[in-house]
């Protein structure tokens, strides 16, 4: 399977993705816990059906010490006992932020308030930005049908 476009050799994609990557680096350096960041990226990627991002972020999370039990339970996080209340709040915000078109009001006040109980303003800013960024990456990869399965940990730096 080949991608519809080669984002790895395109000059315009290279310029655009440089900015996406810079945004990702700024968020990775935030005080939002790294494990929460990976959970968010994985959950949004599951919802959006982005195999490339799922491949990347599950491998990165495992390499950072995330357990296979938690990785396997992300899609069913509501029924799983392995996530903290803060992680649950982040996952719910991720779901509502990813599925904006499915709800006329977007993210509910209740979900926002729950996230705000667990994260300070800077962490919430990072969380919202991360949800938006992973959704952008998902959409790029899904539209061009970027193949998945060959990602190696640390491949993009």
Keywords:
157 residues, mainly alpha
Write the layout of secondary structure elements.
Elements: H1 11-28, H2 34-48, H3 51-63, H4 68-73, H5 85-98, H6 109-118, H7 121-144
Describe the structure.
The protein has 157 residues and is mainly α. It has 7 helices and no strands. The chain has helices spanning 11-28, 34-48, 51-63, 68-73, 85-98, 109-118, 121-144. It is globular and about 45 Å long. The mean pLDDT is 95.
Separation of the first and last Cα atoms? 25 Å
Tell me the structural class: mainly alpha
Give Rg in angstroms.
Answer: 15 Å
Q: How would the global form be characterised?
A: globular
Please state the average pLDDT score.
95
**H and E order:** HHHHHHH
* Oligomeric state as shown: single chain
Major β-sheet profile: none
Unreliably modeled segments:
none
Fraction of residues in β-strands: under 5%
Summed up, the helix count is 7
What's the β-strand tally?
0
Quick structural gist:
This protein is mostly helical. The chain has seven helices and no strands.
């Amino acid at each position: 399977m080949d991608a519809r476009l080669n984002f790895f050799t395109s000059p315009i994609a290279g310029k655009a993705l440089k900015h996406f990557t810079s945004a990702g680096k700024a968020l990775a350096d935030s005080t939002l816990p790294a494990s929460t960041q990976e959970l968010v990226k994985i959950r949004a990627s599951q919802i959006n059906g982005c195999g490339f991002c799922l491949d990347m972020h599950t491998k990165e999370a495992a390499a950072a010490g995330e357990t296979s039990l938690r990785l396997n339970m992300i899609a069913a996080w509501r029924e799983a006992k392995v996530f903290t209340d803060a992680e649950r709040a982040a996952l719910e915000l991720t779901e509502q932020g990813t599925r904006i078109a499915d709800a006329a009001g977007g993210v509910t006040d209740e979900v926002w308030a729950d996230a705000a109980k667990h994260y300070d303003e800077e962490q919430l800013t990072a969380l919202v930005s991360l949800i938006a960024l992973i959704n952008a990456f998902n959409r790029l990869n899904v539209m061009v049908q970027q193949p998945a399965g060959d990602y190696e940990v640390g491949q993009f730096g």
